[in-house]
Structures are given as structure tokens and as C-alpha cells.
């Protein structure tokens, strides 16, 4: 190899290294959208962005909120590649028709457990919520495709689906290792009375606590609650809040003579919590005033 060839080769290597370093220096970014008290449910959507592409976690409940979410994604300048639905409750997926209309090439996926639950209940959920939502109801329902692996990938970086092998695989969450961030979905909440009607047995609440302990064991820097009002707490604050609420609800439900007494006790213990309707319905279910699911 002569001198000119050597210089050319070294220059090419230097350029390759520079490009690699530049690419490695582009971390993922997370943007949280939560409509707060304006919405029936303060449900969280998470936009995870790379240098060029993006993944959306959850699609909102109301049409107007899904439209706001679309604007956020468009303003980012990223190409939406994937929409991941984290749970089967309608506040996570009713906005899919708005998202799909704006980004028709984005894949819409969920775990097999979530897809099966949505398929079973989606028409009944629309029949119930449609008259309540009125113009903010979905114009059509979209069923996600089943994701047969336990992770997503965005520009070479992993987004892991955690909890699939745990005690409640239908209540999973996402872990972004490169950011030490958890998107908690239905498992984590903050600043609200938490929906308890789906965990009526002591074992289901124990399993929930196990999932929260598994989140804490990851030592995340950020935990994004699936539902929250006010400012989401830092670190493990939302995990602690959720754990304490579950314990308190179970203890007060065992003591309360009726649903009204349970509601009163929980409002006393969590005086700043929003979403009292969730508490009132959960209390009725626990004290036998109504059956859930209907």
C-alpha cells in the first residue's frame, strides 16, 4: 500500500468512526401527552422518538384528545412507525381510528393477551361509551395485530415488554433500558383514585404488588404513570403511590360496612386524589352493590 492509499484508507476509517459516534450520540427521547382534567380519563400516551422515527404508546380515549396527539407527533417531524396498545381498556385504544387516518403506514400492535381481550369486548365498550362520548366516540374500531415477541425496536434500541411471564401477563408495562424509563400503563397511576374493580380478589392485588416490586427492581430513573392528574412524580413516586393505594383500598374494603363508608374512608386517606367516579364504582363492586365486569 503506497502513501496515498494509506491516507485514503485512514480517512475512510476516520469518517466511519465519526459517523458511528455521531449516530450513537443520538439517544431516544420521550414525550408524554395526558389531557388531564379536560378528559373523562386522564390517560397517558407516550411518544418515543429516535433521530428519524417514532413509536407511539397508546392512542387516547376521546377523539379530540387523539387529534391533539396527532398534532404532537407531526410537530416532532419524526416518522411514526409503530403504535403499541398497552392494555385492553377502551381509553387506551378508542383513538386508534384518528391515529390510523393520520399515519396509515404505522403498524398497530399489542400483545396477544391484549388483542384477545379487545376483540372480545370492543363492541360492547363502544355500545356503552358511544352515547357518552358522542362526537368524541371512535368512528370505527381498529383491532391491533398480535405482537409475537417481547420487545419493540426503535432505531436499533430496545423497548422491552415486561410482565408477560409474571403473575398478570395481561397487565404488562414497557421498559426502555437506554433511558432507564418505565411506561407503566395500567399498572401505575398517580394523583387519582385508582380503578380497583378489575382486581377484586386478594390474589389479584398481591400479583399487582409483585409487578410494582418488579418495576422498582429495575431501578428506573423515570416511571410514567398510565393515568395521572397533576405533575407526575419523579423516580419511583408513582409506583409508591400505587402500592400504597392498593394496600389502603384492601384494608378499608375489609372494614367498611358498605360502599358509602368505603368511599368516605378512601377520600379521607387520599384527600387530594382526583377521579372520584372510579372510587365510587370500585367501592360498589367490592361491597356487592353491582357486578363487574358487566
From TrEMBL:
Renumbered to this chain, the signal peptide range is 1-24
Would you say which domain of life the source belongs to? Answer: Bacteria
SUPFAM superfamilies given in the database record: Metallo-hydrolase/oxidoreductase
The protein's UniProt keywords, in alphabetical order, are: Hydrolase, Signal
Which InterPro entries does this chain map to?
Metallo-B-lactamas (IPR001279), NDM-1-like (IPR050855), RibonucZ/Hydroxyglut_hydro (IPR036866)
Among CDD domains, the record links this protein to: metallo-hydrolase-like_MBL-fold
For this UniProt entry, the molecular function terms from Gene Ontology, in alphabetical order, are: hydrolase activity
List residues of the Metallo-beta-lactamase domain: 42-227
Q: Which PANTHER family match?
A: METALLO-BETA-LACTAMASE DOMAIN-CONTAINING (PTHR42951), METALLO-BETA-LACTAMASE SUPERFAMILY PROTEIN (PTHR42951:SF14)
Report what the protein is called.
MBL fold metallo-hydrolase
Q: Which organism is it from?
A: Glaciimonas soli
Amino acid at each position: 500500500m503506497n502513501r496515498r492509499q494509506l491516507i485514503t484508507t485512514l480517512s475512510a476509517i476516520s469518517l466511519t468512526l465519526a459517523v458511528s459516534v455521531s449516530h450513537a450520540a443520538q439517544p431516544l427521547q420521550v414525550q408524554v401527552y395526558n389531557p388531564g382534567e379536560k378528559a373523562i380519563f386522564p390517560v397517558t400516551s407516550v411518544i418515543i422518538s429516535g433521530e428519524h422515527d417514532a413509536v407511539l404508546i397508546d392512542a387516547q380515549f376521546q377523539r379530540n384528545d387523539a387529534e391533539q396527539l396527532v398534532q404532537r407527533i407531526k410537530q416532532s417531524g419524526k416518522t411514526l412507525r409503530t403504535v403499541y396498545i398497552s392494555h385492553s381498556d377502551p381509553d387506551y385504544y378508542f383513538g386508534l381510528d384518528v391515529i390510523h387516518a393520520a399515519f396509515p403506514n404505522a403498524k398497530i400492535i399489542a400483545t396477544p393477551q391484549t388483542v384477545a381481550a379487545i376483540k372480545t369486548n370492543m363492541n360492547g365498550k363502544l355500545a356503552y361509551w358511544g352515547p357518552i362520548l358522542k362526537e368524541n366516540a371512535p368512528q370505527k374500531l381498529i383491532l391491533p395485530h398480535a405482537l409475537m415477541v417481547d420487545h419493540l425496536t426503535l432505531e436499533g434500541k430496545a423497548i422491552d415488554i415486561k410482565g408477560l411471564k409474571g403473575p398478570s401477563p395481561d397487565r404488562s408495562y414497557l421498559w426502555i433500558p437506554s433511558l432507564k424509563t418505565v411506561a407503566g400503563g395500567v399498572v401505575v397511576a398517580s394523583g387519582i383514585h385508582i380503578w380497583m374493580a378489575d382486581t377484586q380478589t386478594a390474589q389479584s392485588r398481591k400479583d399487582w404488588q409483585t409487578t410494582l416490586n418488579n418495576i422498582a427492581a429495575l431501578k428506573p430513573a423515570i416511571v410514567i404513570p398510565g393515568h395521572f392528574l397533576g405533575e407526575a412524580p419523579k423516580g419511583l413516586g408513582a409506583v409508591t403511590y400505587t402500592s400504597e393505594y392498593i394496600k389502603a383500598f384492601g384494608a378499608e374494603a375489609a372494614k367498611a360496612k358498605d360502599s358509602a363508608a368505603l368511599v368516605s374512608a378512601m377520600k379521607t386517606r387520599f384527600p387530594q386524589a382526583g377521579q372520584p367516579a372510579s372510587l365510587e364504582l370500585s367501592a360498589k363492586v367490592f361491597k356487592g352493590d353491582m357486578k363487574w365486569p358487566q
